[in-house]
Amino acid sequence: xxxxxxxxxxxANFAAHQAVLDSRHPLLDRxxxxxxxxxxxxxxxxxxxxxxxxxxVANGSAGWVFFYAxxxxxxxxxxxxxxxxxx
Length: 87
Hints:
Blueprint: H1 2-23, H2 40-58, H3 63-83
Helix pairs in contact: 1-2, 1-3, 2-3
């Protein structure tokens, strides 16, 4: 169940990440690595986080589901703030 939840949260993280990349928000210009390789570098980091969390949970550390859910919540909140123009 934990792997499935992380997988669903990972899909949401990728969608939010792509939406932020597509927004071309001026805040992103302050983070130099964000647009490396056309935005693919930051997506690769997101993928590494997802795979890492899934591997740890698959090996029996169920506490990482909570950590990844917390990470996803912060990620989705920030994406909403950027896309809605509140930041």
